[in-house]
Backbone:
C-alpha cells in the first residue's frame, strides 16, 4: 500500500508520538515500507539576539535529534531527520524531496487558537502531496 512512510514527531507530546510510530510500523509490516521520522525545530524568536543564531540552532537540533532517537529507539531501522523552519512547511517539503507516499501526524483537540491560526496537522492535510493520516 505505502512504500515510504513519514512520521512527523513532536517530542513535547510523548504518548501521541509513540502511537504514531506504532501505527507506522503496522502499516510498514504489510508492504515492507521504509519509515522515516522527522522533527522540526521552529525558528528562534525575534527577541533572541542574532549572534546567538548558529550555536543555538545546533544545540536545538541536537536536542531535537536526541528526543527523536529516544522515541524511535536506538536499535530501530527508522531513519531520523531534523529540519529547521515552520513545522507544516518543513514536513511537506521533506515529503516532496523524499518521495513520501504517507505522512502520519498526531493532533490534539482543537481549541480557539487553532480555529484562528490553524494547526500543523490541518496545514499538512491541506497541502501535502500524498496521503495523510491524522491520529488523535
Residues:
Amino acid at each position: 500500500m505505502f512504500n515510504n512512510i513519514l512520521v512527523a514527531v513532536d517530542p513535547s507530546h510523548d504518548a501521541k508520538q509513540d502511537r504514531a510510530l506504532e501505527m507506522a510500523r503496522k502499516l510498514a509490516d504489510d508492504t515492507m515500507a521504509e519509515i522515516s521520522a522527522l522533527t522540526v525545530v521552529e525558528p528562534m524568536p525575534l527577541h533572541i539576539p542574532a549572534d546567538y543564531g548558529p550555536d543555538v540552532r545546533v544545540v536545538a537540533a541536537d536536542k531535537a535529534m536526541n528526543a527523536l532517537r529516544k522515541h524511535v529507539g536506538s536499535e530501530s531501522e527508522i531513519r531520523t531527520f531534523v529540519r529547521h523552519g515552520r513545522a507544516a512547511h518543513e514536513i511537506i517539503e521533506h515529503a516532496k524531496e523524499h518521495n513520501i507516499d504517507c505522512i502520519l501526524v498526531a493532533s490534539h483537540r482543537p481549541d480557539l487558537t487553532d480555529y484562528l491560526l490553524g494547526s500543523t496537522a490541518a496545514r499538512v492535510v491541506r497541502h501535502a502531496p500524498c496521503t495523510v493520516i491524522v491520529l488523535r
Summary: Strands lie at 4-8, 34-41, 79-84, 102-106, 131-135. The CA atoms of residues 83 and 90 lie 7 Å apart.
